[in-house]
């Protein structure tokens, strides 16, 4: 099986509210998205890298470069198995020491493509025969707040929304 195309998309997404960490305050996220296509199916992946190299050396822009110049040519040139596409990709690039977020964005898109092509849920593809949970508990991350009352309100709102974990940024 061949991946017919790999497309990169750059978007800026405004945050619902500003987010402050010890690195600074942000009001938007720069996001690198990857789309792969084969046999009439598509898979999307997202890089977790930020717009600026404050948290990690890897950024959304460096991810674009790594994917466009190094990963995409291999992904598009390779003959891949009909099933297990993402696992084969992960094995192929397992010796790479750097740019894990760029590699993961492509791998994520390949997992979704693999599930689409097999007409199965991504959840069942990940599970690979193991038992599957109906729900996965999620948490919320709250930025640094100058006012304790504002922070307390956000914590309370998170609990009321059903979050089971609340991560607080501190200085």
Percent strand = 25-35%
Q: Indicate the structural class.
A: alpha+beta
Largest sheet, described in full?
3 strands, antiparallel
- Average residue pLDDT: 92
Number of helices: 5
Q: Please write the CATH class name of the largest domain.
A: Alpha Beta
Quick one: CATH superfamily of the largest domain?
Answer: Enolase-like, N-terminal domain
Q: Give the number of domains.
A: 2
Order of helices and strands: EEEHHHHEHE
Span from first to last CA?
50 Å
CATH arch. level architecture of the largest domain: 2-Layer Sandwich
Give the helix level as a range of percent.
25-40%
| Record field, number of beta strands | 5
Regions with little confidence, pLDDT below 50 for 5+ residues: none
Global shape: globular
Question: What does this molecule look like?
Answer:
The protein is of the alpha+beta class. Helix content is 37%, strand content 27%. The protein contains five helices and five strands. The protein has helices at 60-77, 85-92, 100-118, 122-127, 148-160; strands spanning 5-21, 24-38, 41-46, 139-142, 165-168. The strands form two sheets. Strands 1-2-3 form a three-stranded antiparallel β-sheet. Helix 1 (60-77) crosses helix 3 and helix 2 (85-92) packs antiparallel against helix 3 (100-118). The termini are far apart. The model has no long low-confidence stretch (mean pLDDT 92).
């Amino acid at each position: 099986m061949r991946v017919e195309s790999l497309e990169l998309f750059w978007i800026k997404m405004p945050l619902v509210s500003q987010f402050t960490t010890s690195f600074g305050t942000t009001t938007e996220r720069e996001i690198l998205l990857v789309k792969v296509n084969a046999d009439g199916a598509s898979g999307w992946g997202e890089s977790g890298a930020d717009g600026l190299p404050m948290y990690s050396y890897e950024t959304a822009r460096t991810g674009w470069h790594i994917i466009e110049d190094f990963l995409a040519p291999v992904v598009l040139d390779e003959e891949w198995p009909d099933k297990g596409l993402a696992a084969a990709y992960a094995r192929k690039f397992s010796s790479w020491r750097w740019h894990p977020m760029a590699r993961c964005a492509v791998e994520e898109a390949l997992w979704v493509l693999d599930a689409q092509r097999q007409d199965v849920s991504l959840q069942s593809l990940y599970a690979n025969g193991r038992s599957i949970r109906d729900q996965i508990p999620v948490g919320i991350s709250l930025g640094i707040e100058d006012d304790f009352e504002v922070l307390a309100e956000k914590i309370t709102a998170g609990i009321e929304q059903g979050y089971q974990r609340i991560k607080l940024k501190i200085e």
